[in-house]
Design a protein that fits this description.
Layout: E1 18-19, H1 21-25, E2 28-29, E3 32-37, E4 40-43, H2 45-50, H3 58-62, E5 81-83, E6 90-92, H4 124-127, E7 128-132, E8 136-143, E9 148-155, H5 160-167, E10 177-181, E11 184-185, H6 201-206, E12 218-223
Parallel strand pairs: 1-7, 8-12
Antiparallel strand pairs: 2-3, 3-4, 4-7, 5-6, 8-9, 10-11, 10-12
Domain Cytochrome b5 heme-binding: 16-133
Keywords: Heme, Iron, Metal-binding
Organism: Paramecium octaurelia
């Protein structure tokens, strides 16, 4: 492949069932463009790169890495509409400007990239890559071999195995440890809550406890005999 073309390819990433808002936020350029809306995460990198010469890409590039649920009607899932105060006509709500696959309001305008048989927001099969976590939570992971501590934010829906997979960015040999909570091995196929590690952040918030003082539960990692392959 021509090296000059590689910059236009989507970056490699780990496909997950659930993503945190932070996971989405780091994909915030024209060459690596994610958005979320209504609980789904969308990778629009290919869409934008295929139409990069069009000014209709600019609104998408501006909001790359963020949630754009407010662009769409919650009941229909279609782009919101509004009454144009100047003309009195119903037009599409485009706070950042008209974007790809939104029809032009000007009957004489260029609508080449507006009329589309299947607009991107309806093409879940091609562009949707997973779910946005309904609620994230923090967990402290303590390596009992090295006495090293890390606090990571994870989707509350993830199993311990999925959390382990995230933790591999910090410790490539994470699977070589037994994961325990209060001395009891965790069921790796269950979530934190299902393992008896409740999320108490709502209670802390209701009590007015500063977030910096919220209790973060800990998982202890005990090293096994042999290293797994990184």
């Amino acid at each position: 492949m021509d090296e000059s073309l590689k910059q236009y390819l989507p970056k490699d990433y780990k496909r997950r069932a659930y993503y945190t808002p932070y996971d989405v936020s780091v994909h915030n350029t024209a060459n690596d463009l994610w958005v979320s809306f209504f609980g789904k995460v969308w990778d629009l990198t290919q869409l934008v790169q295929e139409n990069i010469s069009s000014k209709l890409c600019e609104p998408l590039i501006k909001i790359a890495g963020s949630d754009i649920s407010y662009w769409f009607d919650k009941q229909t899932g279609e782009p919101r509409k509004q009454v144009d105060t100047n003309t009195g006509l119903i037009t599409y709500y485009c706070p950042q400007g008209r974007y790809l696959h939104i029809p032009s309001s000007d009957p004489c305008g260029d609508d080449e990239l507006g009329n589309h048989s299947k607009p991107w927001w309806n093409n879940e099969q091609q562009y949707c890559i997973g779910n946005l976590s309904h609620k994230t939570r923090k967990i402290k992971i303590i390596n009992m071999l090295t006495d090293h501590e890390d606090i990571i934010e994870v989707p509350s829906e993830e199993t311990i195995n999925e959390i382990l997979d995230r933790y591999k960015k910090i410790n490539a040999h994470a699977a070589s440890y037994t994961w325990k909570r209060l001395g009891k091995p965790l069921d790796m196929e269950l979530t934190l809550s299902a393992n008896g590690i409740p999320d108490e952040t709502d209670e802390f918030e209701q009590l007015g406890v500063p977030e910096s003082q919220w209790y973060i539960p800990a998982i202890h990692l005990y090293f096994n005999d042999d290293l797994t392959v990184a």
